[in-house]
Every structure is written in structure tokens, then in C-alpha cells.
Amino acid sequence: MDLTNRIVRYGELKRCRTAFIDAHTPGSDQKENFTIIGGGVSESAEQHVHITIPHGFNIGAAGQPPHCRNSLHSHRTAEVFFVLSGRWRFFWGRWGTAGEVILEPGDIFNIPTGIFRGFENVGTDYGMIMAVLGGDDAGGGVIWAPQVIEDAGAHGLVLGENGKLYDSKKGESLPDGVAPMPLLTDAELAEFPEPEARAVLPRQVARYLDLSAMADRAPVSVIGPDGCLPDRPGFEVSLLTRGSALTAPVTEDRPSVLMPVFGHWRVTWQGGEATLAPGDTMSVPEGLAHSVVPSITGEAGLYRVTGTQDPAGPTWHG
């Protein structure tokens, strides 16, 4: 079986720099967004989707130079990040001041639904984070903090109530019959929790070094009903290391996705094989027996995402 069209190489990712409403806002105008599997939540018609096959979840990525940030927003379904490269500060709350955490390569954050969140590259080099979004339609888009929409308007970008962006710098304007996206009211804003870091971090953040120690003999469940971060966001995430590689072929009844974070990994199936490097993404069809093992010596870590029958609903229970 030829799976070439189900492998997206890091070096072949097609970026979009106009994906969201803050694309012109100073401090956020150097972001690069990538939609790897599924339509994602991009607001731009310029966003390229690499794999359109439904998986029950979406895979995307964000690349940012140092000091570049992603503005405060919320989602109705799960948003899970792991750091591929760089050092990242994640912050949350109406103004981004309720709490924060610094994550390093391999660390993973299951961000609760229904809270405003943002992130910035606080490292010294270009960094990349990989994202898993719940549901095939990723929850119907992004909910922006009011100040983000206001700042964007001051720099030429308007978001229509249809979820599409219009750029006055390109001579675009809202079509007849399409109103601007309304700002959230005070009453609506009051519905967004402001959890402190002490409430979020133990339940929603897992460090790679801790996970890799637990995955020394068998894959460790990171996100799932029995995971280190117990949750049912519509998919499960596990970590494989050298000691817990899938040397014996496994088969899933739903598509799964392989995402190396450290080392090179050889995926083998009847009639083919492929070697994946950090930043590569591979979609494995349901029903296909396959093995997944490191191909060279050294540190080896790989996240595996599998869809479930659970609805891609809220993940904050504070």
C-alpha cells in the first residue's frame, strides 16, 4: 500500500501568514500557521490543507520567531499542544494574566476549553508547536477576546460574522449583508473562567522527561480516560519511546497519527515502510497493521494520536 499521500514532511509544510485576525497586529504579525490534517480553524482562504481525510480530530502547527505571540482566543473543543522546538510561554485569562506556564520540547498542554489562551515564543530561535484540535470541524472556529478584534481593526483586518477575514490593505471590505463579528458582551465574558496556574498545571500539563520515564517499557497514555492527563476530548494521545516502541504490528479501527518529537522512527506495514523525523506527520489508515520503531540510536520520542467515539466536547471541569 502506498501511503505517500498520508505523510507530510516538515520541510514540505506550506505556511500561511494570514490565517487569523491578528495577522497585521504588531507582535503577532510574523506568525506562520500550518494545517496538516483537517480544515482546522483558519480564517483565511489562503490556508493550505495537506490531508483532508476525516480523522475525528485536526492536526495543525504554529511557527513563530522569538518574541512573536498568538493572541488571546478560546475554542469550544479540545486544543492540545506539544512543543516541537523552542521555548514557549502559554498564558490564559481574559487579559492573559490569570496564569502561565513555560514549556520545553516534548512537553504537552491539554488546554481547557472555554478559557482565553495565547502563547508566545520566549526562546532565542524560531520555534514550532504542534496542535491537536477536537472534532472534524474543530468546533466551528475561534472565539477572540474583544481587544484582539479591536486591535486587528486598527491595523486593517476585519472579521465577518461569517468567520472570514477581510483585509482593507488589499482593498477588501465586508460584503453586503455580512456584519462584523460582534464583540462578546460583559455577560458573555463573565462565562469564561479565570483559573489560577495551581488549578490548571497538575491536571493539564505533562513534562516530556516525566512521560518518557514512564514509557520505558510500554507506551504511556498521556491523554485519555486513564491518561496522565485524564480526559475524553474526542481523541487519545500516547507517547512511545525507545523502550516502548511498537515492535509487534498493531491495528486500530480508526485512523491514527504519528508525530515524532525526538529521533527518527521507521514505520513498517505490509508492502511498504517510511522513516519519520521530528516535525513529520503520518496518518495511518484504520485496519492497517503497522509497527513503529526508532531507526537510529539516541533519544527517541513519538506522540501517537487516535480518534475515539467520545464527543469532542468541553475539557475544563474546574
Automatic annotation (TrEMBL):
<feature type="domain" description="Cupin type-2">
    <location>
        <begin position="66"/>
        <end position="129"/>
    </location>
</feature>
<dbReference type="GO" id="GO:0016853">
    <property type="term" value="F:isomerase activity"/>
</dbReference>
<dbReference type="InterPro" id="IPR014710">
    <property type="entry name" value="RmlC-like_jellyroll"/>
</dbReference>
<dbReference type="InterPro" id="IPR013096">
    <property type="entry name" value="Cupin_2"/>
</dbReference>
<dbReference type="InterPro" id="IPR011051">
    <property type="entry name" value="RmlC_Cupin_sf"/>
</dbReference>
<protein>
    <submittedName>
        <fullName>Putative mannose-6-phosphate isomerase</fullName>
    </submittedName>
</protein>
<keyword id="KW-0413">Isomerase</keyword>
<dbReference type="Pfam" id="PF07883">
    <property type="entry name" value="Cupin_2"/>
</dbReference>
